[in-house]
Amino acid sequence: MPAPPDLRALLDAFFRPGPRVRPVELLRAAAELRARSSGALTDAAMLDFGRPIDGGPWCPRLFGPIEPLRCRCGRLVGPERRGETCERCHVLCTDEPLREQRVAHIEAPFGLVHPMLAARIGALLGLSLSQVFAVADGEIVILGDGRLVLHEDVDPDDEQVSFETGPRALRRRLADVVDPELTAAGLSAEALVLTSVPVPPPGDRPLYHEEWPDEDRWFRALWSQRVGSDNRALQGLVARALRATRMLELDAPALLLDRDCIAAQLAFEAALDLLARPQDAPERAPGPLDGWLPAPVHGDDEDHVPGTLYPFRLAGAPAVSDAYERQIYHRAPHRPDVPRACVLAEGDRALVQLGYAMLLVHWPTGHVLRTIPGTEARLLGAAGGWALFGDKFGRQLDLADPTVLRGLYALDLNSGTWLEGPYPEDLPAIFVEKDQPEDAWLTDWRGQRGATGAEDGSGDRANEWARSPDHRYIWMSSAPDDGAILDTERGVAVLMISHMREPAGSDVSTLALTGPEPDEDAEIDDQVGPAIAIARPGGEWRILLPGGKLRRDGRIALRFTEAAVECAAFDPTGERLLLVNRDALHVVDVAGHELLARLDLRPLAPALALPEALAPELADLVLARWGTLAAALAQPDETLLELGLDAEQLAALRAERPPALPDMLSKT
Fold first, then answer.
1. Which residues contact 271 (CB under 8 A, 6 or more apart)?
2. Fewer CB within 10 A of the end CB, N or C, for the chain?
3. pLDDT at 300
4. How much is the pTM?
5. Is residue 36 a contact partner of residue 7, using CB atoms and an 8 Å limit?
6. pLDDT at position 174, please?
7. Rounded to the nearest 5 degrees, what angle is found at the Cα of 526, between the Cα atoms of 361 and 628?
8. Which positions ≥6 away from 111 have C-beta within 8 Å?
9. Which has the higher per-residue pLDDT, 8 or 527?
């Protein structure tokens, strides 16, 4: 949304004045922008781990909330708090587009010379236009007798020679000059050297992505570097101005103070030169993109070609001829019956991802609707009749077929088949991608670009731990009890997990679960899903925190006891919560704090056990393809022998006679 017409006119008068503009008009525009300012910038940094820095060029306190009807810390949320200012973060709770209407300013008590005012300054001081710029930029010094000398021709250690330079020197000399035009307007000649600079609203300088002409399927935009040239120029000016102001406060030696004031003047000129250009000018575009190979390969993976499909990733993939290859790329879970991820889909269906199999269950009745062989790709969520899986090794478009996105899989829950080809438009496409273990980005893979407005969310081995059912919000951190929740549309952190660590009160409702006792000291295994979930129905945050605490906006509303939660997910409406451990599946009514269903999963364990007759790598190979031993033994001998089993191993395997998965899960 563009700035209002009156504000747009003032900004144009300051940053893009015409060649015939009068000094009085420009000074009046600067004074009006200063009067409209929401405050002075006190920090040059914009974002820290995707979160706006207070007092910086992206500050919500100065420019308005990033998210409608929500203050920065989340204390004020919803239409009923509209118009209130948070006492904690001092951000106004409103849905008005303030970030397109508010301006701030940069304090510069040492003075800055606007290029359009240099001619009038030169006329009053008897200097040419080039001499004014040379003095302001520190190239020429003014001696005590008024002579101009090149800076390098003056010995700074000669105490008998007094000189000064920079904007401060011009401002001091203007104090002794009278300009009739300025006097008639109520201004002094000193006002020609500005003491504050307006900062345009964030709507005029968005975080954005620019297509790179050389970008191909092997490269991705690192949007952590895509703040844009406008913001970079303003950041440089703020940093220099704050340093010069501090040096002035400390009464630093003139030589050091002039150096910092001159640096601020040069940054001011660079910012004005950039902002005076049209919005679509090439100079205002971000710099060249950095490239990134999507699948770092180390150790056993060094022979894998980035962009090609790992053999194990998708059930139904081309046959693997060598069991050793499967052993290299497939990491078997410690227990096949331990849940790795789960999701509540439409039609009262629960999809649970186990070590080698996935179960689609109609949870009100306990009917097992479908059994699907497992995949190494992690279950992320559901969208309509589809379940979405993301590969942890990296995603990119297929080199032969651009409509196929390798590493992103969609499972049709109605037919149990994997999608091969163009993806439905309603499938989400923003994911966390990683380069080195310590770096991570939000990336829109459908467009092969960094998510618009997104900032670097990296940390110590940052990872995606949970996402909301609508896939807009992602819990991203290096651990499941820390980090931040990112808004994928804006690319900024909207909630910090560190602010939610207060213990549950004694008056909080509790709900007992069935299953193994929680181990407070246990680390989450790489093969087990984290027991956390997020949703935001109707603007209310609903978050399942580690330890079984359900938080609704500002307080803990429900606590789960008696058993561990190994993976969890909200349904698309956010009204129901699915909690799964190796013993039971629970469905909870979030608003009513009521247990809607509890299904016993313990009868699954015998059917999911590893076959004892085979070596671990062969057992892993068999179950990775068919999910259960019973399903594998339903195949003809020729198919099993093609996997690398010999006749003796096949005979021993057929002698095991494992139980099949039950068609119905009993209620407990």
1. 233, 234, 236, 237
2. N
3. 36
4. 0.53
5. yes
6. 93
7. 40
8. 167, 168, 170, 171, 193, 194, 195, 261
9. 8
Q: Residue 153 contacts by C-beta under 8 Å, 6 or more apart in sequence?
A: none
Residue 511 pLDDT more than 70? yes
Strand bridging mode 509-512 / 555-561: parallel
Between 91-105, 145-159, 387-401, the lowest mean confidence (pLDDT) is in 387-401
CA dist., res. 3 & res. 200, Å (int):
9
Q: In the predicted model, what is the mean pLDDT of residues 291-311?
A: 32
Angle in degrees, CA 12, 17, 21, rounded to 5: 135
**b vs e for 545-580, b when ≥16 Cβ sit within 10 Å of the residue's Cβ?**
bbbbbbbeeeebbbbbeebbbbbbbbbbebbbbbbb
Report the DSSP beta bridge partners of residue 533.
544
513 neighbors 586 (Cβ within 8 angstroms) = yes
How confident is the model over 134-148, as pLDDT tens digits? 999 999 999 888 888
Whole-angstrom Cα distance, residue 142 to residue 166? 9
The C-alpha atoms of residue 254 and residue 403 are separated, in whole angstroms, by: 64
Whether 488 and 472 have beta carbons less than 8 Å apart is answered as: yes
Give the model confidence (pLDDT) of 104-124 as tens digits: 999 999 999 999 999 999 999
State the average pLDDT for the chain: 78
Query: Six-digit token pair at 620?
Result: 């892993």
**Which structure tokens are listed for 629?**
């031993």
Contact predicate 63/54, CB 8 Å: no
Q: State the CB neighbour count (10 A cutoff) for residue 159.
A: 7
Burial 444-466 (b: 16+ CB within 10 A, else e): bbeebbbbbbbbbbbbeebbbbb
Look-up of token digits 């250009």: 277
CA atoms within 13 A on the CB side of 501: 9
The whole-number pLDDT of residue 407 equals 61
Structure tokens at 368: 């097992």
Closest CA to 571 of 609, 610, 604, 597: 597
Angstrom distances, CA of residue 622 to CA of 63, 94, 220, 464, 571: 59, 57, 36, 30, 33
- Which position has the token pair 């295994």? 525
Tokens of residue 179, six digits: 């300009």
379 CB neighbour count, 10 Å cutoff:
25
Choose between 533 and 521: higher pLDDT: 533
User: Residue range 166-187: average pLDDT?
Assistant: 92
